[in-house]
Design brief:
Mean pLDDT: 81
Number of strands: 8
Strand content: 5-15%
Oligomer: single chain
Structural class: alpha/beta
Helix content: 40-55%
Largest sheet: 6 strands, mixed
Order of helices and strands: HHHHHHHHHHHEHHEEEHEEHEEH
Shape: elongated
Low-confidence stretches: 10-18, 34-40
Distance between the termini: 84 Å
């Protein structure tokens, strides 16, 4: 920064360096000074890989490893700091202190740098088990502080391997497992710590709280499993009712072709039945199918939704309520032409010979009978859809009769 500031002050276009604010200088630092072009197009990349100028920590740090061939300058810098083949313990200790210095600064960048130092100390493979335990334990703390809870736990395991009574590592592992939501694993670490010190207040408190959480978790799991069982039984009963009535549910041909098992085909049907936000077919206490039914009025581009239409009821039951003989017509029926005795109700029917087509249905028949008329009506998107016309109206003649 200071060198760049001096460079700017030497340029006649800027004059005295006091004329520039710090923000302006930092902004100018994003551009390439003319003198640095002599170093080639990759000068910024090379500077970023130098330990004195890098502003990004190597990704390898996150994994607790360090690729010296990829970062030779950084590796040489670390070697010059502490390399002494005759004093491995001393080198490891120096790396530990260097890591502690970064760790105490408390920034994410410094936690990464601390991991580099602790890793270099570990790689010295000195014979001091206590020092190795501390190096692993400290690296676990740094990993914990950047959110690498699994790697923190792994380092705690290594720390305990070198020093079986290293309580700090145990406590760190407990906290890491709590962060991961692994209550049972946290309890296992509590037990390992209490085996070292059965009166450890923090571990006792943590174990009690974890057991309470585990109890709640197990109760919730039992509720979830019971709910899943009820849902599976309800789905099985629903599918059985639909199939026994011969009702056909639309499923995309490609998806149906890819379904290899009966279970997969059943799931496709269930997904189709639940595709609508208008409601879902269900079985009532009398084992009757209750459908969401949509009535379309193509002439006016409007519709009505009956969210619960029992299969025992007829279309006439609902139409008589919606269009009473002496009642008020809907706002969209300006000329009052929608009268029950003048209406035609149609549904899409499937046929092996003619495919899908609109057919007129018997309004007085129960819905259950309407849905199995002929070779079977097609229910798409989980909603039974009918089209309602005024008989012999222009829209009726064009849509149904094709005239």
């Amino acid at each position: 920064y200071n060198e760049y500031k001096s460079y700017l002050s030497s340029c006649t276009m800027f004059g005295d360096d006091d004329d520039l604010t710090n923000e302006e200088i930092l902004e100018l630092m994003k551009t390439d000074p003319p003198g640095l072009k002599a170093f080639g197009e990759d000068w910024r990349k090379e500077m970023d890989m130098h330990p004195l100028f890098m502003d990004k920590i190597p990704d390898e740090v996150i994994d607790g490893t360090f690729d010296r061939t990829k970062w030779p300058v950084l590796a040489s810098h670390l070697d010059m700091m502490y390399d002494d083949e005759d004093d491995l313990e001393g080198c490891a200790l120096n790396y530990k202190e260097d890591g502690n210095t970064h760790f105490k600064k408390g920034t994410k960048r410094d936690f990464y740098l601390a991991i580099i130092s602790y890793t270099e100390g570990i790689n010295k493979k000195c014979s001091d088990n206590n020092l190795n335990a501390v190096l692993y334990g400290n690296r676990a703390a740094a990993q914990f502080n950047i959110g690498n809870y699994r790697k923190a736990t792994q380092d705690c395991e290594e720390a305990i391997r070198h020093d079986p009574k290293y309580m700090k590592a145990v406590i760190r592992a407990v906290k890491a497992q709590q962060k991961l939501g692994n209550i049972r694993e946290a309890l296992e670490w509590c037990d390992r710590g209490l085996a070292i010190d059965k009166h450890h207040a923090e571990l006792i408190s943590t174990k009690v709280k974890s057991l309470q959480k585990l109890k709640v978790e197990e109760r919730n799991e039992r509720k979830r499993m019971a709910m899943e069982l009820r849902e599976r039984k309800a789905n099985a009963a629903l599918l059985s009712a639909i199939k026994s009535r011969g009702i056909r549910i639309y499923v995309p041909e490609m998806a149906e072709a890819e379904a290899e098992t009966e279970e997969e085909r059943n799931q496709l049907i269930l997904d189709s039945l639940r595709a609508s936000s208008c409601g879902t077919v269900s079985l009532n206490v009398d084992n009757d199918l209750v459908w969401p039914v949509r009535l379309l009025y193509p002439e006016y581009s409007t519709s009505d939704l009956i969210s619960e239409f029992c299969e025992r009821n007829s279309l006439l039951d609902h139409l008589s309520y919606m269009f009473p003989p002496e009642g008020t017509s809907p706002e969209w029926d300006e000329d009052g032409s929608y009268q029950v005795d003048k209406l035609v109700v149609c549904i899409t029917s499937t046929s092996s010979s003619s495919g899908c087509k609109l057919v007129e249905v018997n309004q007085k028949a129960p819905l259950a009978e309407v849905l199995v008329h002929g070779e079977g009506m097609l229910v798409s998107g989980g909603v039974v859809t009918f089209e309602v016309y005024v008989r012999n109206s222009e829209t009726h003649m064009s849509h149904i009769l094709g005239t």
